[in-house]
Amino acid sequence: MNKPYLLFLPLYLCFSLYSGVLKAQSFDVLRKQFPDEKAVLLNRVYEYNIDLKNGEPYVTSKELQQIEYLLGSATAYMGKFGFSHSDFHQLVSYEAFTRTPDDKKLKVSEFKTNTDKEGFVFYDDVKETTFHFPSVEPGAIGNLQVSWLNKDAHLLSPFYFTSNIPTINSELKLTVSKDISLKYQLIGLDTSNITVSVKSEHRNNVYTFQYKNCPADKSYDDAPGFAWYSPHVVFYIGSYKNNQGSSTSYLSNVNDLYRLSYNYIKAVNNQTNPELKHIVDSLTKGVSSEEIKARNIYAWVQSNIKYVAFEDGMGGFIPRDAGLVCSRRFGDCKDMASILTEMLNAAGVKAYFTWIGTRDLPYSFTKTPLPLVSNHMICTIKLNDKFIFLDGTDPTCVFGMPSSAIQDKEAMIAVSENDFQILKVPVIEKSKNVLVDSTWLTLTPTGIKGHVKKDFKGYFAMEMHGKLIYWDKKNMDEIMENLLERGSNKFKLDTFSIDQKKSAGEFSMSADFTLPDYAKKLGNDYYLNLNLFKFFQNSHIDYPKRKVPIEHDFNFETKYVTLFKLPDGYKVSYLPQSKTFHNKTWGFDLKYEQKDNYVILTQEFDNDHLITTSDEFEQWNKVLEALFPQYKETLSLTKI
């Protein structure tokens, strides 16, 4: 789910008003205020008119954006603009032009419309219209005005106040009929900076949400989805008065959401496809255990149905019949849920369509009963009075474990037309996701010779199985060398092997390598740093400047063991001290010991949080402050 395009509309009155504001805030003032920015958004104003037409909610919207260019280099990066539209968000009108520093209006004459799809989406109906502002130069102002008709009032998009550049004025205005009950929520960080006002004007209530001087969004590779932190307004219709004057519930609670959602699936799989039934029979022949039946069917779907994303009008909400998915041998998440549900029920295993949001989204069904809460669909089964979540889109997911992307999320399970359950998907404990990396080192006349064994369990193993599917087999030597590198950039991989006989929940590999010039000899003494890995070197958090949380794929335990064989005729003259440091956020255990003719360094790290929030950043950094000095410790050997 992407952050929506920021568009513009025919807000002629607003534009006239803002023109006066812009003249008051001169170009020189903006350059001084934002010396490092190429451009700023002067205004982002989005207006909705939410009314009733023929007894049903009717929604139109329009947006104005004005971007002022501050540096000449902005042309290459920010001259191109665009806006999106779809079957649900129908384009009505648009205009774009540049207001030059000498107050000339230069209209955009060429617009290009293409399908706006992500690389992983096979087909969708979202269109992107792009263009270039003419005569972009310092002091020029690009203007875009766009209007739409929103065909389904259940699907109103949140309004995000911030952008990738600073915004002087960001504003949402909702003009809502008094016959409509509107609900809204402020979500994200810094929502206290949003001013909210509600005024009564004739037959409407007018809601205004404004954020002045929004800082630019800063992206972090380790951050969760932008909805977690970027301040935004989620707004929706709770109820409205129909033509008879009685109140009609629309999206007032989760029951309304379930009724809407169930309409998308009630006509699916009304008849079992003969081909599919034959496959089910072959997978369950002679099997009485419901669990084994479920395992067999899940494994078959994972191996035989390819995941391909679709977004095509109502096709983005309605699953396709299981028979069609079977014959095509591909489908999106809804189609995977469809074929799994049908096959399992045909085998006598109770299975249910299930709506769920991935961890990209911070919302829950109980707090925000809207379609935007779920961007994913899975199948849920019930075995021995226990619910098990099956995600058909993940070909490496282990039966009984949810895919990592849906941990800790609410699932809405369609038990029947009038009955549903909302359950929390469990978070898999760290002891089930373990990585153990062992290295045996032997001193040679030219450096180090070593052997590696890596064992993966749980999500670590699933990740490796997934990578193995897509790795270019022609480049496996290079891939494995990068994966197994340790000590220094002189690392040379000699041989490697992968144990593919392991189950989906386990994975292992081993290798032999050489590491020239790693041990240093001075006179009769050797010096060797057993810290072959310098973990978390770039993980120090810029606290308190950073406020955006850190996301972890899963909870885990990692263990790195280095076993160095003492060369004949030498003894340990200095063994570094062991170190342990833990706080409420995380920690490490680093242990040195000598056993017989081996010196062993064991490093253990763990993570027990899917999200690290800003109030934990200081404690995170304290662990690093205790860890980094240990990387300088060196083992010393002296000749006997």
From TrEMBL:
Please give the InterPro entries that the UniProt record associates with this protein.
DUF3857, Papain-like_cys_pep_sf, Transglutaminase-like
Superkingdom of source: Bacteria
In terms of Gene3D superfamilies, this protein maps to: 2.60.120.1130, 2.60.40.3140, 3.10.620.30
Give residue ranges for domain DUF3857.
Answer: 86-216
Checking Pfam families in the record gives: DUF3857 (PF12969), Transglut_core (PF01841)
What stretch or stretches form a coiled coil here?
Answer: none
Name all Transglutaminase-like domain ranges: 278-351
Name of the featured protein? DUF3857 domain-containing protein
* Source organism of this protein record: Mucilaginibacter angelicae
